[in-house]
Amino acid sequence: MRKAKIPLTNFQYGELSPSLISRTDTRVYNASAQKVENFFLRAEGGVIKRAGLSKIYEFDTTVDATKVQQHRLVPFIFSDDERYIVSLEHQKIRVFQIDTNNTVSLATTITQDANSATLPFTNTNIHQVTYAQSGDVMFIAHQTFMVRKLVRTGLTSFQVETKTFDTQSAGAKIYQPYFQFQDLGVTLDPSASSGNGITLTTSAAYWDLTGSQSGGNYPDSKHVGTTIRYHGQEIEITSVQSATQATGNCLATLKKKLKVDSFRTDNGVATVTVTLVNHGFSASDAFVISNADTVGGISTSNLNGSRTVSEVIDDNTFTFTAGGNANDSTVGGGTPFLETHAPATNWSEQSYSTLRGFPGAVTFHQNRLWYGGTISQPDGLWASKSNEFFNFDTGEAADNDSIDIRASIGEVNTIRHLVSNRDLQAFTTTDEFIVPAFVEKPTTPTNATIKRQTSFGSSFVKPYVYDGATVYVQGSGEIVREMLFDDGQQAYTGQPISSLSSHLIKNPIQATTLAGGIDRAESYYFLVDADGTLAIFNSNRAEQRYGWTQFTSQGSFHSLCTVDTRVYAVVKFDKGDGTNKYILCEFDSSFNTDMAKTYSGSNGVFSVSADFANGAVLDVVSGTHYLGQFTVASGNIDVSAVDNSLSSAEIGFKFDVTLTTNPIDTATQQGVLSGEPRSLNKVIVDLSNTLSCSVNNKNLIIRQVTDDLSQARVAITGKKEFRLLGFSKDPQVTVSQSAPLSLQVNSIIAEITF
Can you tell me the mean pLDDT for 39-58? Predict the structure, then answer.
């Protein structure tokens, strides 16, 4: 018989996928474990038990068992001293304030927007919305409703508004994106250039005919309320009569601002040639010229006023007769306006509407507000004017004008997320794109380009910038990748980071990150799964260290968010009588149980009826002592049989804490021992600040019989030896707890005989 000591000095690769348990030849085998449940990975290589969940707030709605996505937690940070947690719910928003003492309290509940309309958030879309915050405004986006603004109006007051766009000072031109949805060559013919109730006729079917006809109109048409831009001015659609006819109100006189010096004259004649792209005119069409400068000797009085098209030269040029002859062949005219209501092909419709859909992605990048991905333009990408977040007018392509580009290469890609990182990153259903940043100047309408980097696709889970990369869930929902710039390739890559622990990534619905860790310097990436578990990723790129663990609870996790270094969760708990409730909790290192609170009582009796039902089995902790499990009766927990002097105690649900190593193996001259019988003789566990620990069901002895039992137990720091017997083909070490108290494992040394 031979002996070998196998050092397991770190668990930096976390919980290993079952498909890799036999891979004893890999470098990760002895730096991972078969199970790491309810532990955080530490930078030093060990693991520490997660904090308990302290109860903050019980939501007032009983959970329907068929609904698993009732809440979405979102951080709202106005300043260091004014921090909030936003809970998106079905047709409701709750805002919780975090004061300077980190006490959380409900600030306000919102069920209607500023116009008394029902909020558009529902059980089915709250985990699909995207959001971006600037100052006291948070923009919330989804393809099924116009972007909403959550506006902080006071220390504890908020309201919801529908995103609006800037207008001209006169209130006419609306600075929103427009798009030519009509087929090529389809004309729009307004019956007048001003006024209300003008008729709009198209040369082919165009207007939406949703619903049944009533009184000669289609009252349910989704075109009603939208705006059409014709010659640079807006017409609001008020009714639809047929597929080719609608009625609208002119928000301003229909006139087109021509480009600078669009007039050309010929010496000695009164004919003026006009350059106007896609003018749509026919010979004899009437129009009005205004604001023209003298050109070729033809005075402004002989240019401005009512004119008629003399000849159509091509789609972009036509002529008219001025009131006098030119004395020079030249180009000029300044920047005139052309007023007309002749048929034109150069017209467009607002990009965002009930008919066309709304942006599903939103972010801030380079002092612009960016939108992406509507139903009708899934690959559309729009940016506001620089430092003007409510102005999306394309203007004249000045550097600060808005941007309108497409994220498509051969196929249409629906934009699901926009992330501001080194470059603007666009995550679509099939590909990952960037809008490259420039070293010497910002992105502008003239230099904005979009480039595909990888082709994996993204799910609805919000990507996060983490450890120098952007971490996102692949469209299939089973792989987590990082979008990271590769200096060698001068492009982004999309390497998987979940391969070693693929079994923990099942059906993610939400993610968040924590920078700075819980009482530590580590950073973590959290992934909420639809089954109520949490997968936690910890990495350090410089040290090539990364791994996953899993959090479970007697309840089930449904949402998570971080504010500064604190982590908040919505957890569904059974109160003990089959009644499920959603509870807002905080991961709190001062507690060792879930749904925990510190209760005050007398003579060992504590009233818990506000939080638990009769029949609930709860765990009671007093300082360094675990008193055991007790059942709620008559609304009370009675521990008087154990300690009738107790007046304060932590009461909650304990949770499983398990670290199970991979099968202990070692290389011999004959090869590895996998599958061969061998004896696990001894295990040495290096512990820190530990009050409860079991190794293969053998409990750690904290006290000796000679200790003063009236004094608090002293936590163990140092190496502890556990002797074990028996042969096994795949011996393993399992570290667990029988009591919900502190536990930190730094390393394990296993001695085997073979």
Answer: 94
Model confidence over 310-333: pLDDT tens digits?
999 998 999 999 999 999 999 999
138 assigned to some structural domain = no
Same domain, 282 and 328: yes
Domain CATH number, residue 307: 2.40.30.20
Residue 395 domain flag? no
> Are both 646 and 665 inside the same structural domain?
no
Q: What is the pLDDT of residue 156?
A: 95
- Identify the domain boundary among 318, 334, 350: 334
Same domain, 681 and 736: yes
Q: What is the per-residue burial (b if ≥16 Cβ within 10 Å, else e) of 407-425?
A: bbeeeebbbbbbbbbbbbb
Helix, strand or coil, per DSSP, at residue 301: helix
For residue 182, what are its two tokens?
Answer: 């009509």
Number of domains comprising the chain: 4
Are 371 and 158 in contact, with CB atoms under 8 Å apart? no
- Domain boundary among the residues 653, 676, 703 is at 653
Residue 602 lies in a domain: yes
Mean pLDDT in residue range 678-699: 91
The strand pairing partners of 228, in sequence order, are 235, 349
Q: Give dist(CA 192, CA 407) in Å, integer.
A: 38
C-alpha distances out from residue 702 to 391, 690, 694, Å: 67, 9, 11
Q: 348: part of which helix (H) or strand (E)?
A: strand 347-350
| C-alpha–C-alpha distance, residues 133 and 562, integer Å | 15
CA distance linking residue 172 with residue 153, whole number of Å: 28
Same-domain status, 703 and 669: yes
Output the six-digit token pair for 741.
């108290």
pLDDT surpassing 50 at residue 682 = yes
Q: How far is CA 276 from the centre of its chain?
A: 44
For the stretch 600-635, pLDDT in tens is 999 999 999 999 999 999 999 999 999 999 999 999
CA angle 472, 473, 475 (to 5 degrees): 125
pLDDT of 334 reads 96
Q: How many CB atoms lie within 10 A of CB 674?
A: 15
Residue 355 counted as domain residue? no
Rounded average pLDDT over 568-588: 92
Whether 35 shows a pLDDT value over 60: the answer reads yes
- Residue 268 near residue 325 (C-beta atoms within 8 A): yes
| Structure token digits, residue 326 | 């030119």
- Which stretches of 487-604 are assigned E, i.e. beta strand? 491-496, 508-514, 524-529, 534-540, 545-551, 556-563, 566-574, 580-588, 594-600
Contact 273, 317 (CB under 8 A): yes
**Residues 698, 737: one domain?**
yes
Q: Please check whether residues 270 and 247 belong to one and the same domain.
A: no
Distance CA 573, CA 56 (A): 13
246 and 281 assigned to the same domain: no
Is the same domain home to 299 and 326? yes
Q: Are 550 and 591 in contact (CB under 8 A)?
A: no
Phi and psi torsions of 500, nearest 5°: -70, -20
> Which residues form the domain of 41?
3-51+658-753
pTM for the whole thing?
0.90
Q: Is the dihedral of CA 494, 497, 503, 506 positive or negative?
A: negative
Q: Which residue type occupies 459?
A: S
Distance separating alpha carbons of residues 597 and 595, to the nearest angstrom:
7
DSSP state of 118: B
The angle subtended at Cα 357 by Cα 353 and Cα 359, nearest 5°, is 100
